[in-house]
């Protein structure tokens, strides 16, 4: 049975629940504008649209209901999955950025009950296994404007983090002393990404991304225990402005998570599978002269998740989003809001809920 304050049950196995390095604005479109958004950390070439120094902070509050063979539970979580700083370089058509985002999240608490034979007597026991942490992505990125409407970008990624594991066992018979164990898994790796954004016409633009994350080394209590291959990522996006009030976008992402399959199987995990994600969304502006005054954002996405729960069917996910925002103080500050409904399923395991995303943007 799951306990309070945890991430998805589909992030218990493998490396955890993959993160989404998006700003609140992009979250309101279900990720459809991710490859074109300079405040997100997906495509480094999208930084070209950053006219001045900007700092953005994103926080999420999630509420979900979980169902599995052990029963059902209501859960919630609070995280700060994305922080970014970016600014143009004077005299050069360049923008540099530094960002932090969640690569994978492995927060969970599991409680089980069993009966064990001890000295030929059956003794009820209660076990609790918890994990806090995951892998973080520290990105150093830059974009360069090759020509009018065409930008290229590159980024260097440092993957680091840890998961703190704790196991507790208590006995129904008070004559037995409770047992506790703890360990810490540490992760370290590097990756790189390149991308481009090309404005084909005044109303149509395309974007592309290629990323490799190599492998991540795993240490348990400062002792190297394994090495896990990480995926290549490929992305393609299209943005279309049919009118001054409406902008639409779509993108697709493919990640080769199966590269980690043999490494995870060797450690007793169910393995990993490739994932695909497709998103479609838009932004409607009520007054084109004030594009940042409460626009309406919307979107939907469908995708698969990399880590099966018990080696069964691959988890699938569907989500629909709404969002809005506002700028104030001569557009030096801003707040963006996103509301997402999601549902994830894999055989007898399912969960659904809502995620509220709040983004604060400051332009000094």
The average pLDDT is 91
Radius of gyration: 22 Å
Low-confidence stretches: 1-5
Query: How many β strands by DSSP?
Result: 18
Number of domains: 1
Quick overview of this protein structure:
This protein is an all-beta fold.
How is this structure best described in words?
The chain has 364 residues and is mostly beta strands. The protein has 2 helices and 18 strands. The protein has helices at 24-27, 261-266; strands at residues 17-18, 54-68, 71-89, 94-105, 108-118, 121-147, 150-171, 179-201, 204-212, 215-220, 223-229, 232-243, 246-255, 275-284, 296-304, 316-328, 333-346, 349-362. It has a 14-stranded antiparallel barrel. A hairpin with a 2-residue loop joins β17 (333-346) and β18. The longest helix has 6 residues, at 261-266.
Topology:
Blueprint: E1 17-18, H1 24-27, E2 54-68, E3 71-89, E4 94-105, E5 108-118, E6 121-147, E7 150-171, E8 179-201, E9 204-212, E10 215-220, E11 223-229, E12 232-243, E13 246-255, H2 261-266, E14 275-284, E15 296-304, E16 316-328, E17 333-346, E18 349-362
Antiparallel strand pairs: 1-4, 2-3, 2-18, 3-4, 4-6, 5-6, 6-7, 7-8, 8-9, 8-10, 9-12, 10-11, 12-13, 13-14, 14-15, 15-16, 16-17, 17-18
Write out key terms for the chains shown.
elongated, 2 helices, 14-stranded antiparallel barrel, 364 residues, single chain, mainly beta, disordered N terminus
């Amino acid at each position: 049975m799951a306990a309070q304050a945890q991430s998805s049950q589909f992030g218990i196995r493998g490396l955890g629940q993959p993160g989404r390095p998006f700003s609140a604005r992009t979250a309101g479109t279900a990720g459809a504008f991710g490859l074109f958004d300079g405040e997100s950390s997906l495509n480094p070439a999208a930084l070209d649209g950053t006219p001045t120094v900007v700092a953005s902070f994103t926080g999420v509050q999630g509420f979900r209901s979980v169902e599995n063979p052990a029963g059902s539970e209501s859960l919630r979580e609070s995280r700060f999955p994305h922080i970014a700083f970016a600014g143009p370089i004077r005299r050069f058509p360049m923008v540099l950025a530094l960002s932090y985002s969640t690569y994978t999240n492995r927060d969970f608490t599991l409680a089980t009950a069993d009966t064990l034979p001890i000295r030929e007597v059956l003794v009820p026991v209660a076990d609790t296994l918890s994990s806090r942490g995951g892998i973080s992505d520290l990105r150093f990125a830059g974009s360069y404007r090759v020509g009018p409407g065409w930008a290229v970008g590159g980024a260097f990624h440092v993957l680091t983090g840890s998961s703190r594991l704790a196991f507790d066992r208590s006995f129904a018979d008070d004559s037995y002393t409770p047992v506790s164990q703890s360990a810490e898994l540490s992760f370290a790796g590097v990756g790189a990404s390149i991308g481009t954004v090309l404005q084909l016409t005044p109303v149509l633009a395309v974007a592309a991304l290629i990323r490799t994350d190599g492998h991540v080394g795993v240490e348990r209590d400062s002792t190297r225990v394994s090495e896990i291959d990480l995926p290549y990522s490929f992305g393609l996006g299209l943005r279309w402005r049919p009118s001054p009030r409406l902008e639409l976008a779509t993108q697709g992402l493919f990640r080769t998570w199966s590269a980690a399959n043999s490494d995870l199987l060797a450690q007793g995990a169910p393995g990993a599978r490739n994932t695909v994600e497709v998103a479609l969304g838009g932004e409607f502006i009520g007054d084109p002269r004030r594009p940042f005054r409460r626009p309406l954002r919307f979107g939907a996405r469908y995708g698969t998740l990399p880590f099966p729960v018990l080696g069964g069917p691959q988890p699938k996910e569907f989500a629909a989003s709404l969002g809005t925002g506002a700028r104030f103080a001569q557009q030096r500050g801003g707040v963006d809001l996103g509301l997402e409904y999601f549902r994830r399923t894999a055989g007898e395991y399912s969960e659904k809920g809502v995620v509220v995303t709040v983004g604060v943007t400051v332009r000094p």
